[in-house]
Amino acid sequence: MVVCTCGKPAVVKTSWTNRNPGQRFFGCPTIGSNCPFLGWLDPPMCPRSVDIIPGLLRRINAFRGVVEELEEQRSKYKKFVVCDELNVPWYGERISHLEDVLKHLKNKKEKKEKERKEKEMKEKEMKKRKKKDDAEGSSSNF
């Protein structure tokens, strides 16, 4: 176990400097202490790695920013998709009131119910006509 010059057990930290990117080292566990550097845990990196890794880290961080921005936009568009799926009118930035949505869905349900009843009535009427036509057809055979 590595012990700091202040007597506390050392902790493993990671350097993210351009000179030592991703390299682990032993450091003092006290935040902001003035204890000296204790030493590297990892072996030295080759010069090419030292050149490449900082650029890759910058690119990753840039992509993270893009992903965050896209997720923000997705959450905005998600509202559009939900409204479109429900066939609910979209009111600018947001749905004006939940009551409007509920009213719209209730009207939609009532309309479907009315259409279903009308269809049933037409089917009953057609059956009656068919029965009547069948009865008239069979009586004319005599």
UniProtKB/TrEMBL annotation:
<dbReference type="InterPro" id="IPR010666">
    <property type="entry name" value="Znf_GRF"/>
</dbReference>
<feature type="region of interest" description="Disordered">
    <location>
        <begin position="106"/>
        <end position="142"/>
    </location>
</feature>
<feature type="compositionally biased region" description="Basic and acidic residues">
    <location>
        <begin position="110"/>
        <end position="126"/>
    </location>
</feature>
<keyword id="KW-0479">Metal-binding</keyword>
<feature type="domain" description="GRF-type">
    <location>
        <begin position="4"/>
        <end position="44"/>
    </location>
</feature>
<keyword id="KW-0862">Zinc</keyword>
<dbReference type="GO" id="GO:0008270">
    <property type="term" value="F:zinc ion binding"/>
</dbReference>
<dbReference type="Pfam" id="PF06839">
    <property type="entry name" value="Zn_ribbon_GRF"/>
</dbReference>
<protein>
    <submittedName>
        <fullName>Zinc finger, GRF-type</fullName>
    </submittedName>
</protein>
<keyword id="KW-0863">Zinc-finger</keyword>
